[in-house]
Here is the input.
Amino acid sequence: MRRREVIALVASAPAWPLPVRAQSSGTSVVGFLSSRSPEESDSLVHAFRAGLHESGQAGRNLRIEFRWAGGRLDRLPALAAELAREEVAVLVAAGGSNSALAAKSATASIPIVFVIGGDPVKLGLVSSLPRPGGNATGMTIISGDLAPKRLAMLRELAPNAAAFAIVTNPNTPEGSVQETDAIAAAERLGIKLTVLNARDERGIEAAFATLSAQQVDAVLLGSDPVFDIHRNKIVSLAAALARPAIYQFRDYAAAGGLMSYGPDIADAYRQAGAYAGQIVKGANPADLPVLQPTKFQLVINLRTAKALGLAVPLNLQAQADEVIE
Here is the structure.
């Protein structure tokens, strides 16, 4: 059973009286910067294009210039600067705070639409959520703030687990916040928590090898775009170790992961497309409120639970937006 959850979209903001950047042919160019890779982001790009279409900005008069870091966060500043030199009409920064910060450093004049999991005010991207005030706005899916909730859900699903672990990326602002929040949550819940760091594919493999060696019973995977790139491998590693794990997006559960809890990421990209389209038409990013999710999706894979010998509590199944059988 599946209920579709959507994120509320705030009404359009007033028009921006600055000239819209465009090529001499009359084609507006949208820059799209992502820390992720195109191979695993098809559904997100599709959702982004749908948002552009909803805003009335789609077709022959609009071109998208993509730049993908492929998990190499150190490449983001150069890619952002490259798009800024193109003088795009709007620069979309997706795939976490590192992408948004790179875009913000690259330009103080080109409008920016970000999709991040952290707090844009604390990161210095905007002055406030309702009135961003500068050249940037977008959506924070606050996925990075959900580590305590995910840890509690994992404990409920695996009540006999004695040792838990969280895998985070220390190279992202979201990673450091999740680590701190998860440690505090573990203390409140009275459970043992090991913190493991992974920055890339080799780091992910090393982290799961450590999980096996330390006999960790259950795993919380941190919210991170680098992990999203390697989600199929991560799910396979968890399955090989026969460890219950919880993830941030539905894609993990659909790939065979035990459980996911988080926002509808595709809908966030759709809204980024809608905001980008509004800005191309003349809206001012300073007046477009930063959006936040109002609904979160809990997805449980019963096939995986059965393979792990776990009985999913009926009350947890009742809370689920989707149960994969």
